[in-house]
Amino acid sequence: MFRKRSYSLVMTGILMGMIVLLMMFGSRLFLDIDEEPRVEEEKRIVVGVSQLGSESGWRTANTESVQNAFTTQNGYFLIFNNARQKQENQLKAIRSFISQRVDYIIFSPVVETGWETVLQEAKEAGIPVILMDRNVDVDDQSLFATCVGSDFVAEGEKAGRWLEKELRKRGYAEERVNIVMLMGTEGSSSQIGRTTGFTSVASEHESWHILDKECADFTSIKGKEVMRDFLRKYQDIDVVVSQNDDMTFGAIEAIRESGRTVGVGGDIVILSFDAVRNALEMVASGDINVDIECNPNQGEYLLRVIDMLEAGEQVERRYYVEEDIFTIENVTQELLQERTY
Ligand code: GZL
């Protein structure tokens, strides 16, 4: 009798113990070991990023740079949206970030105008906005904290000064030089700045004639189409100024299909912008005469800016990334191997 009772008492005790253990540690006992280590979400800085699209090799590298910066390990929670080249998608994404009450909004404005209202909404919500890559054209400069990107006017001027030197080297004194321009997205900072910079140098030379300039939206397909039209319209093109490498790739295809040659020793001089790796390979092979670098690696700069804002420090109105200019003389195999984009 005693044995039976004590046995059932023991079993009841063990059962109760197991229930208590399961209640205390159940979730942990069955924790999925592949689960991400839990960073206290409340401590992570939440950043909403509206990227304008994925139109070019440069844009892909720019996106990678942002995603590599705003990681869990770095203490961030990244909400990333690709606007597929549409301003209305960027406006939607920014309003969504505001309603989610993110800590910071970062965006690369597809064009410079049309942002006042949404930036005012972010300001009233107390959410700092940081511009990446491109700029906005607003009267109230307090609508954004800073802009991390390139000096596009300087990039355009660099292209013009290189062409001056190149023509002098070829002994072109006052011979007529016929130029066509493939333009980036109409109204974008990069299109506006590069055009301003190059045409300001061109205006110093009476012998330089810009026959035509047309938007090819920073894509290789449009670049090929526009270049094909130029080749039909103009028999004596000497120089192509293409405002990004993707349009350049398309333009070179069209030129070659017309039976003409490009680059060093070719019929048509090619000036390009961005300096992504596969374009630099074409600089090294002499197909592209010069490539004006536009550095997409802006993630680290953006991290530093947010560090400063978090520390209550004053930030500059603009931060320019470092950039170079590449020709066959300085594109080495080592450089190509080291290149991250
Ligand atoms: C430049 C960037 C431009 C690149 C293009 O900062 O805005 O947009 O030159 C990209 O490749 O599409």
Give helix and strand order, one letter per element, not per position.
HEHEHEHEEHEHEHEHEHEHEEH
Give the number of DSSP strands: 12
What is the CA-atom radius of gyration, in angstroms? 28 Å
Small-molecule binders: beta-D-galactofuranose
| Mean pLDDT across residues | 91
- Principal-axes geometry comes out as elongated
Profile the largest sheet: 6 strands, parallel
What structural class results from the helix and strand content? alpha/beta
Strand content: 15-25%
Number of helices, counting only DSSP H or I runs of 4 residues or more: 11
- Span from first to last CA? 82 Å
Write a structural description.
There is one protein chain. With 341 residues, the protein is an alpha/beta fold. Helices cover 43% and strands 18% of the residues. The protein has 11 helices and 12 strands. The chain has helices at 2-29, 57-69, 87-99, 116-124, 152-169, 189-202, 220-233, 245-257, 277-284, 299-310, 333-338, and strands at 45-51, 76-82, 104-107, 129-133, 146-149, 177-183, 208-215, 239-242, 269-274, 290-293, 318-320, 325-326. A 6-stranded parallel beta sheet has the order 2-1-3-4-5-11, with helices on both faces. Strand 6 (177-183), helix 6 and strand 7 form a beta-alpha-beta unit. The longest helix has 28 residues, at 2-29. The termini are far apart. The relative contact order is 0.12. Mean pLDDT is 91; it is low at 1-5 and 22-35. The structure holds beta-D-galactofuranose (GZL). Beta-D-galactofuranose binds next to helix 2 and strand 9. Residues 55-56, 58-59, 133-134, 150, 184, 190, 218, 244, 246, 273-274, 294 line the site of beta-D-galactofuranose.
